Amino acid sequence: MTSVTIKTDSEAYEFASRTADAQRAKLPEWQRDQISDADMQIGETWFVWGFFSAMTDDVERRKRLLITYLNRKYADGQNNEQRVDDIVKTAQAENRLFDAIVAAGRQAYHEGGDGHLASIATIFLNVLRNH
Predict the structure, then answer these.
(1) Does residue 131 register a pLDDT over 90?
(2) Residue 58 resides in a domain
(3) Domain for residue 89, yes or no?
(4) pLDDT tier, 4 (very low <50, low <70, confident <90, very high otherwise)
(5) Assuming Cys at both sites, which of 3, 89, 109, 113 could form a disulfide with 54, CB separation 3.0 to 4.6 Å?
(6) pLDDT at 116
(7) Phi then psi dihedrals of residue 74, to 5 deg
(8) Of 17-21, 34-38, 113-117, 121-125, which gets the smallest average pLDDT?
(9) Does residue 33 fall inside a structural domain?
């Protein structure tokens, strides 16, 4: 689905970043304490992929937006292009966890809600406890 409102890449980044930061800030402390930063970063990245997926049908633009997002927020020397390529591959495979988190990102974009990342944290906790 393409949004009715067209956003520039910079606006898209700012909107996604504000949404993810606001949602992360609202996570209950018990969730923040039980999920590693690396796991939460994965969940956030998948969430933002869903957010951008709701914003545009153009996969190349989504990739560019997510690479920009990762480079700005997590400039830790990781190969963000490879991370995004891995996400594209995961999106093409059947992965219920990935699909649930991407759906939450889409929903957050459409609704502007602030509780979706908390749902993701709960999903991650359940997966971590059961595996």
Answers:
(1) no
(2) yes
(3) yes
(4) very low
(5) 109
(6) 58
(7) -135, 60
(8) 113-117
(9) yes
Domain-located, residue 41: yes
Q: Is the dihedral of CA 73, 87, 13, 22 positive or negative?
A: negative
Nearest to 54 by CA among 99, 106, 14, 107: 106
CA distance 41 to 21: 12
> In whole angstroms, how large is the CA radius of gyration of the chain?
14
Could you tell me the residue range of the domain that residue 62 belongs to?
9-130
Q: In the chain, how many domains are there? A: 1
